[in-house]
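User: My instructor asked us to take a sequence, write out its structure as tokens, and then describe one feature of it. I'm not sure where to start. Here is the sequence I was given:
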Amino acid sequence: MRWKRFGQWFAFHLFGISLAIFLVINSTILYRWTLSWNGVLSAVHLSEAQLMKNYHQLISYLSFPWITKLKMTNFTSSAAGLQHFSDVKKLFMLNDVVLLVSGILVFFFVRELVRTKTLWRVIRQMQVSLLVPVFVAVMMSISFDQFFIGFHEVLFRNDDWMFDPQKDPIITALPETFFLECFVLFFVLIEIYYLIFLWLGKKQLKNAH
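Assistant: Let's start with the prediction itself. The structure tokens for your sequence are:
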């Protein structure tokens, strides 16, 4: 029973993380917002519509398994750049699988808690869990450059992610501040996920009295 509960909570947290990643990946409005104040348009000499078209082409390649080749209208890619995007695509596909499997497990886990009227048990777990993203975000804010480098060194076994703007001009359209915003949004979404279940747990506990 203990291992079952451990597995359920593990799936619960995995689902929250993979869901937040999925939402960040597909929040193209965040990139559009970045363009409005980051000076990207002047750096790449493209209109917002052109740049958004290329960005959608990139995200589509990374997100859809049936798109096997990366083709962007206004950007060429080196062999190393294509390899990096291929590696990123594999990670995105893995995240989708984790999201689906953990989502199924979490559905039955939460249904069990609701059926047995023990959803209130998540309160302490959520109170602790809410502190973790805050701690990681604070560590990230101390030196985002080092965090960003370490993040890539953990996920990738090569240096293909170190783009040369001359060979992979798409990197000019993806400033570091954009990735910072993506991480911030990720942490915000994780906090919302935990807060929702904290609220649900407290609501059940309140109704029980």
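For the description part of your assignment, you could build on this observation: The first helix runs from residue 2 to 25. Try explaining in your own words what that tells you about the chain.
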